[in-house]
Design goal:
six-stranded mixed sheet, 281 residues, alpha/beta, 10 helices, 2 domains
Length: 281
């Protein structure tokens, strides 16, 4: 039986989003946040079968610590070019969730958002694979408040570093890889909590209904990835066309005949004439 990819967000939520197995999420969060969470409550949300119109809905995990601090963790494998504003939007919703009119502002609790990404985020090109953001003064870098904390973990960057098997976060991220070599998997399974996570992953992988929903989610993600790539290619093609037509207009304005200009392009004389007229409208 093939080991399913833990970074499939449906499977990730099945693995870590169960209050009955909250020690798995606690272990992962302790490695990311470098704190010692003893207990937390996971907000249980039933994982229903995906509806066609909702096949790419967000599958995040929400949890609350005994102190009231809120944590949201999400896997995002596709770069939809909106990660930063989207993160702030969902952080703000969680931050004020449950805050009623007339309540004291000092009752608002620290809210932490963690994004595990399957791509490199352009805005973080100068950061390491795990970056943490808070609100700080631009010159002194002094922290204004601890109420906001946002983490990004970029898997492509992690795969470029030398793994440290004494680092709990490295071990967890190796566990989450769908193509982790057997010798590395054996090493990270020395951690008891990761060993328990692997046992649960094996159990979920053997469940026909889980595999069916896993495949549905994987197909939806694959279809969306193809759509984004197609849109990107079309955008590049359009950009090249605009560039060509700009150059050709310059040559025509200097007296070059249209038939001669067409020889410098991938278009026939008729196609070039049509495109020039269309872009003038």
């Amino acid at each position: 039986m093939n080991r399913l990819n833990p970074l499939n967000d449906f499977l990730f939520k099945k693995l870590f989003g169960d209050q009955n197995d909250n020690e798995l999420l606690i272990g992962l969060l302790n490695a990311i946040l470098k704190i010692e969470i003893v207990n937390l409550t996971i907000e249980n949300e039933k994982l229903n079968r995906f509806k066609e119109e909702e096949k790419l809905g967000i599958l995040d995990i929400k949890a609350k610590m005994a102190t009231g601090e809120k944590i949201n963790i999400e896997v995002q494998l596709l770069d939809q070019k909106n990660m930063i504003p989207r993160t702030l939007f969902y952080w703000s919703k969680l931050f004020v969730e449950g805050f009623e009119s007339g309540s004291l502002y000092k009752e608002l609790k620290k809210t932490v958002t963690i994004n595990i990404l399957g791509f490199k985020l352009e805005e973080l090109r100068d950061e390491c694979f795990h970056s943490t953001f808070k609100i700080g003064e631009s010159k002194t870098k002094n922290n204004l408040t601890d109420l906001l904390e946002i983490h990004f973990i970029e898997f492509p960057k992690f795969e470029e570093i030398t793994y440290d098997l004494n680092n709990p976060l490295h071990c967890w991220l190796l566990f989450l890889k769908d193509d982790v070599p057997d010798y590395l998997l054996r090493e990270v399974l020395r951690m008891d909590v990761i060993s328990k996570a692997e046992e649960k992953l094996t159990m979920l992988s053997a469940d026909p209904e889980t595999r069916k929903e896993y495949e549905r989610r994987a197909k939806a993600l694959s279809d969306e990835r193809s759509r984004l790539e197609e849109a990107k290619e079309k955008g590049m093609e359009k950009g090249m066309e605009i560039g060509i037509l700009t150059i050709i207009r310059g040559l025509l304005s200097r007296g070059m005949p249209l038939n001669e200009a067409a020889k410098l392009t991938p278009y026939s004389e008729e196609e070039l004439d049509r495109k020039l007229k269309e872009t003038q409208e």
